[in-house]
Amino acid sequence: MEYKTAKNLKAEKSPTITTGITALDKCLRGGIRPGKVYELVGKPGTGKTQLCMKLCLNVQIPRYACGLASKALYFDTRKDFNPARLKELADDLAARLRCTSISAPTATQMLQNVYYVDCRNTAQLVAGLLNCHKYLEKEPNIKLIIVDSISFAIRMVNNVSDRTELLMEVHDGMRKLQLMHDLAFVITNNQGYRRRMSQFQLEAVLGRKHSQLINKRIWLTENECFVGKRAKTKRLICKLLKYTL
């Protein structure tokens, strides 16, 4: 057994997955970390899926560039995944990595390291997550799992009680996978109006119990990025340029 001091632990920087947004990476202490659940919240068209696709590529950044040199698994419930756009993003990242090393992965290699699962209904998403450990045993280098979108799948269930039970089952499955395989989850969520007192406020859907089970909630608008569990308490991290996402 090896004993370490707190100073040594602080000095040991574990690799992270960069988001490509400098201010957000700084807020997240380097980026997306294995062992945690991150949620992207925003209206349609704010760049949630685009950021998810970028993360699928950024998880492959080599270790010499402070990356994880790993792979990604993408659960798609909305049919928003765009292979052509992913190829464009891969070409851009590969070109930047080649400037630092001739052994950098090519765009084609990056695309081969993104595994895609089409989930047409809630049952397929739950079954996919619960049986995911079998696939991860064959592909142990998968360190990022995307669920885009968790709210779209869960809200297909009309009964609120059944919906909550199903959501808790999904969270339980994600936690087990994290403990067994040391990977990160990034899920996307939508917004909806909730009545508080006499006013309607725009909040992330799926409820408070769900929000307590995620580690970080990142809010995206067309030109801003926030971090915080609730809309009322979220704080601005940075302005987003049109080409950021």
TrEMBL record:
SMART domains: AAA. Its main location: nucleus. Residues 13-192 form the RecA family profile domain. Gene3D superfamilies: P-loop containing nucleotide triphosphate hydrolases (3.40.50.300). One of its GO terms (molecular function) is four-way junction DNA binding. The keyword Cell division does not apply. This is DNA repair protein RAD51 homolog 3. GO terms for biological process: meiotic DNA recombinase assembly; reciprocal meiotic recombination. It comes from the Eukaryota. The gene is Dvir\GJ16038. Pfam families: Rad51. Keywords: ATP-binding, DNA damage, DNA repair, Hydrolase, Nucleotide-binding, Nucleus. Signal peptide: none annotated. It comes from Drosophila virilis (Fruit fly). PANTHER family: DNA REPAIR PROTEIN RAD51 HOMOLOG 3, DNA REPAIR PROTEIN RAD51 HOMOLOG 3 RAD51C. One of its GO terms (cellular component) is Rad51B-Rad51C-Rad51D-XRCC2 complex. CDD domains: Rad51C.
